[in-house]
Amino acid sequence: MRFSESLREATKQSWELSLNHPFVQGIVSGDLPLETFKNYILQDIYYLKHYGKVHAFAAAHSDDFHVAANLAEKAKKTAEAELTVHKEHAETLKITNEEIENFKPAPTAYAYTSHLYRASLSGSLAQIVAAMLPCYWLYADIGLTYKDAKPKEEIYQNWLNTYGSEWFQESTQEMIDLLDGLAEKASETEKEKIKDQFILAKEYELAFWEMSYTFETWLSEKAMNSTSV
């Protein structure tokens, strides 16, 4: 069994919960309220800004020129994806530049990006890749699993098409192969650390759906909103 396969097995329940989460199922059917998707997109714009930077951190950790170049290219494409999200969804979802500039992430989005930075600053290249991989892999899975879904909202079909596309599937497989290659050279102690990074990041992916679906906010903001009603 490849190391990546053992990671999937270790996160099997979380994976199933992610694929079947009401947020994802709402996209698949087209019934997810656009306001909920807008909340997700705003959170994801914040996440992608930092996710791209983590790719750059990973590239700096690599002694292999080709690996570093590939990760740097992925950092560039992540930044481009962020711009695409702005362009394609802003008009449909009525997202203004002011909203983006003044946006404050929910606790889960903030914690997830903080986890990625922690892996970048204290972990090996393998640990950084392990922390980044669940994002690639889960979205690639969703793109393949629901490629024939045909949701009622065009914006959801476009979203599914992005992650079911050949370029995204190939990019995901490159990250899986990279982690497997790094794991082959790792000690058993290091493998456990790699596994821990992957599992925690996968839990954050599941929590990201829940955060978006429930409009998660900081407790102080929730208290302020409840007293102002």
TrEMBL record:
Pathway: Cofactor biosynthesis; thiamine diphosphate biosynthesis. Belongs to the TenA family. This is Aminopyrimidine aminohydrolase. Signal peptide: none annotated. SUPFAM superfamilies: Heme oxygenase-like. Its EC number is 3.5.99.2. One of its GO terms (molecular function) is thiaminase activity. Pfam families: TENA_THI-4. One of its GO terms (cellular component) is cytosol. NCBIfam families: salvage_TenA. Gene3D superfamilies: Heme oxygenase-like.
